[in-house]
Amino acid sequence: MDSVSSGGTPIQHRVPTSDPGARSSDRGGISMRRRMTLEESDHFTGTRRPTQYTQYGKTPNVIRRIRAARSDIGDMGRELYMQPDDIVRLPYILDGRIDEVNSRFSKFLREFRLEDFDGTITPTDEDYELLDRRQNFTSQWASLYYGLKMMLYIDAQFGSSTGEDLNSASSATRRFEINLLHIKAFDYVLYKMIIKYPADCVSDLDRVVQRFFEEMISEYFGETGVVVDHRHVQSNPRVRIFGKAEVDNAANFGPGDIDTLVSVKGVVVRCSNVIPEMTMAAFKCSGKVKTGINAFEKCPQETYEYVIQGEVNEPTSCSKCKNRNCFELWHNMCCFASKQLIKVVELPQSTSAAPQSLIVYAYDDLIDSAMPGDKVEITGIFKTSALRINPRMRTCSSVYRTFINALHIRTEESSKNRMASVPKSLSKLDKNPLNYSQEIVNEIMRLSKCPNIYDLLVKSFAPSIQGRDDVKRGLLCQLFGASNDPASRMRSQINVLLCGDPSTSKSQLLKYVHMLAPRGVYTSGKGSSQVGLTAYVRKDVETHEYVLESGAVVLSDGGICCIDEFDKMDDFAKAILHEVMEQQTVTIAKAGIVATLNARTAILASANPVDSRYDKRKAVVENINLAPSLFSRFDLIYLVLDCIEPTEDKIIAKRLCNSFAGTEQEDPPIDPVTLSRYISFARSNCNPYLTAESRQIIISEYLKMRVVEGSPSKVPCASARQLEGLIRLSQALAKMRLSPKVTPSDAREAARLMKATTFQSLVDPISGRIDFDQLATGLTSAAAKRTEMLLEEVLTTISFITTSEPFANVEGIYERCKAQFRARGEYLERRQVLDALDKLRQDKKIIKNVGGYKVI
């Protein structure tokens, strides 16, 4: 016995027998079910072992059949295609009630009506959309929920035109989704059997649905006289079960959960390339057959063996040439299943313990159904496999590794199964407008026609936070984003920075944006490293090759990356964000891997002042520990200060007291679910363009920003980045109305927002003027002028002292300069003098010796 699949189940030895009746005394109901399987296998193949040598063209029929088998339920997916001596190698079925699955599920398909469980099952948006299409069909099957679903499946596979080439349907999706909540309400015994024995049950569900499909497809094409054989069309539906009543916590998985159905929620952090997994091994004899005296020819003997329980029976002797140990593995004729490794990290809110990392294997049509950064709910079979101590030895470790074979993957962005009456919880948001029913789309369009939609959105955004309306307007602009034009090189993401005093709701605003954003990652600056933000290289457990693991900004591709405590990040992590915020990419060159990853994400950051409280006597670049070049990449910079305002303070105090007292708060004009849907719909379907009038206003406002009244005439107060920011803000404001074009009012409001935020934050506290130079140099013009004066004063002082002494010491320089500044009414610190001395030394204007300083 040779091990073929490293990801297979542990080795188990069984006594083979070709007589299915010989095992009638086995435990549970194995004999009845296995006998039924053998009968179906004979009916499907026509004959037994000789069929594997029957040729269709140049491919044996056994190879053609096994390619149609499903791989996500392991060996059970190939049970129908196996021969008797292969079937008896499958695991035992210990529960006799498993024989009832066929009849119970058949009854469910033919009798389940959603209307009969009105008080038990809460209909989803998909249910309403499905039932709305019932009027398009006159067949009696349309009265059944899954009968109607099968009719829609057939219609999608073959089209309404009977002249269409049926074989083209094989490229279409074969998923036929079954909601476990429906099964639980209809037949609780069947539900529990599916949870306990998913592989066996799903195999039976496929057969029942296959017969259901045959019966309905005959009726579908019966009136036209078209004869359809599903075995040749290869469009049999494949059951995908989802909707387990309880979402599992990976930390609680134990030995009792092995081979049971589980459901977990998490974030995808890595998807591998497609991995081939052998399901059938082809062997070819390498011996020779004697055809005459001293005449030999190559033996034509071939044999095919299934990979069962991770093992394959290698033939030991050839019946044709009578040689022993002469078979070689024939790779070209082996069957492989397409497999993809998906690494998932549990969502923090789904468990009180530390989030667990899970390995998930997706097969066939589930490959690429989720991408890194997607929030997913995975329904699958919890499996284990043995680990070899040495790859060259058959000895296995007693500690097994665990993984999940996915049966269904549902992303939060593409979920159709949200409740129609969803509680106002931000963790249950439907964010993909492509799946919205017509009723939801009509509601979105009705909202967009409201004349005061802009104010309604502001009032509905973070209603628990009092005031901060301009901050909310800017964050709404970030959520809606600018027009996404693939032909344009301009980024459509809007970057926002919140900086100011502690306890001003900055973190709460970040969390609210994170909940509403279609996708993204929330992280803290202190706990984020350079590789944690971008990507890191690690060795893959399966292939032992170096692979890239995505970081926060890569996982947020297409969404918003929220970074709290932005000022506390290390300098290396901040430096990597320069490329992300402007070029929207991340370049990696590590361990022989050179790659450029997409990071088309908007950055929302919050930062606290260096001295905890914001010092109004200093400029923003002096208060916040950020590089000036990073400041300039933010479209909107908000100063969120804690000012004494009795009226606002009283309102905030009342609101907090009512919240702790349990008093009901007034509902926002637009609930969070509808707001999230509205934002997602606008992001995907609305791309407003600039009209001639709006372009003129943007140009005019930009020229005014270049030379702001009160600023030095020769110093520009805006750059091309501010012009691009104006365009992005104008388009985002137009998106809020789902308008196809940017109006002049949008352009004026964008200019007002930029002046009220970014430009006000750049006011020099000394001169009272807007100083754009601080984004380029890190100093205001007044501070730069004062520094230049100090350098001249220190240089003059050293020259004066060294006329009478060999060197000038630090104390003497500081006292003389301090007196000069005091005479002008200014204060001078010792640290400033030391910085000036270091600067003069770097410029090679002075030298330092043991005795002090001297001018060169």
From TrEMBL:
Pfam family, one: MCM
GO MF annotations in UniProt: ATP binding; hydrolase activity; single-stranded DNA binding; single-stranded DNA helicase activity
Domain of life: Eukaryota
A Gene Ontology BP annotation from the UniProt entry: mitotic DNA replication initiation
Catalysed reaction equations from the record: ATP + H2O = ADP + phosphate + H(+)
Keyword list, A-Z: ATP-binding, DNA replication, DNA-binding, Helicase, Hydrolase, Nucleotide-binding, Nucleus
Keyword Hydrolase: yes
GO cellular component: MCM complex; nucleus
Keyword Nucleotide-binding set for record: yes
Disordered, as annotated region: 1-54
Sequence ranges assigned to domain MCM C-terminal AAA(+) ATPase in this UniProt record: 453-656
EC number(s) on file: 3.6.4.12
Biased composition (Basic and acidic residues): 36-45
Similarity comment: Belongs to the MCM family.
Assembly with partners or alone: Component of the MCM2-7 complex.
Function: Acts as component of the MCM2-7 complex (MCM complex) which is the replicative helicase essential for 'once per cell cycle' DNA replication initiation and elongation in eukaryotic cells. The active ATPase sites in the MCM2-7 ring are formed through the interaction surfaces of two neighboring subunits such that a critical structure of a conserved arginine finger motif is provided in trans relative to the ATP-binding site of the Walker A box of the adjacent subunit. The six ATPase active sites, however, are likely to contribute differentially to the complex helicase activity.
Protein name: DNA replication licensing factor MCM4
Species for this entry: Babesia caballi
Lineage, uppermost ranks: Eukaryota, Sar, Alveolata, Apicomplexa, Aconoidasida
